[in-house]
Amino acid sequence: MCVREIPVYLIGPGAVTPFQRVSASSFFPGVVLARPREGNKGKPKGEKNHGGGYVRVEQSLRIPAKKGKSSPMSIPKRKKMRAAVLLSPRQFELRELEVPAPAPDEVRMKVEYCGICSSNLAPWKGAPWFSYPFEPGAPGHETVGIVEELGADVADLEIGERVSMLGNHGFAEYEIAKANCVIPISSNYDQVPFLGEPLGCAMNVFRRAQVREGDWVAIVGTGFLGMILLQLSLEAGAKVIAISRRESALGIAKKMGATLTLSSKDRAQLLEVVRNATGQQLCHLVIEAAGAQETLDLASDLTGTRGRLVIAGYHQDGPRSVNMQEWNWRGIDVINAHEREEAVYAEGIRAAVQAVTEARIRLDELISHFFPFERIEEGFQTLERRPEGFIKGVVSLC
User: Fold this and answer.
1) Of 24, 122, 266, 293, which has the fewest CB atoms closer than 10 Å, so is most exposed?
2) Residue 199: its pLDDT value, please?
């Protein structure tokens, strides 16, 4: 095989400096360089004079060469990662892919945890409007991890910093996001993962709901989102009614200080209890936090005259019907509390960081289930069943 040697030049300031070893990986594999010594005296054996100084070539770079043309150097293999791919309804597959490189305005995060959001259930179960396979890592969007690489233009984050990010490819060992969608959370991370996206969502819902001191507030659906809203509403001085079909969730709500905890299994009895508690006025504010037709109907029934009905649940499994006659007669305000602007999402996460720091939000009992990456489908199955004791499931990648 024909082999040629390539001369290696040190690129840097023209001033001579003391002999200093330079990392070979900064230039070419298999080459070790050194900066010039002071002056030209005592030239070490093996050094060559290149442009006014010396460069030591400890090992020449030798690559195959074809006759009559230059041959490109081989490129080192890219780092690999695992990502979950939703191939079809109820079927994930772990694939090995190249680790993505961040663009100048992006950040790469090594994912530690990714929460399984209730909104993930519809694509996992399947519906005609979804296209399969999903992109690697989708639809995971509740990620927390460590900054591993910064784009060239990113200046306000640090490698090694623990962050939460806004993205949609979190079921993977690495994820990329725009720098303005990456929020530091290091001071709020203890034993419980700080899932920035759903916490930020809760803060934005609470802001839109305008909870007032003394309000009767019913929260229909006491999963992770509902439990956060319960704590924030209590802190604001409201009287909070927690509603769930699971006794374990009602137990946690009672421990957190809910004024009333009611089962949704007997709707007629529930409505009677609420009427009696509120002097027949029903609730000033009702937050629907489950994303189902049944819970939307119940939330409508609980909203009093001139009350506010806040839709926080994610309704994505088909159209909904509402009792518009009742809405008109009671003159209620209906608020769709979902945000779509990245800046508003990010501000919600920053507000959540502060709320956790001030102990206005407690997370210790809310993340109930952890699933290794290899058992991601078990996590989705558990979310679908929502057994007693379940509040929030998280996929662990660390």
Assistant:
1) 266
2) 97
| Residue 228 identity (one-letter amino acid) | I
- Average the pLDDT over each of 18-22, 42-46, 179-183, 348-352 and give the range with the smallest value: 18-22
Map residue 239 onto helix, strand or coil: strand
CA distance 201 to 154: 25
Report the CATH superfamily, name and number, of domain 80-195+367-396. Medium-chain alcohol dehydrogenases, catalytic domain (3.90.180.10)
- Amino acid (one-letter) located at 306: R
Helix axes 267-277, 293-302, angle to 10 degrees: 30
Stated pTM of the model:
0.80
Tell me how crowded residue 196 is: count the other CB atoms within 10 A of its CB. Answer: 28
Range 211-336 has CATH code 3.40.50.360: no
Cβ partners under 8 Å of residue 280, min gap 6: none
The residues spanned by each domain of the chain are 3-64, 80-195+367-396, 211-336
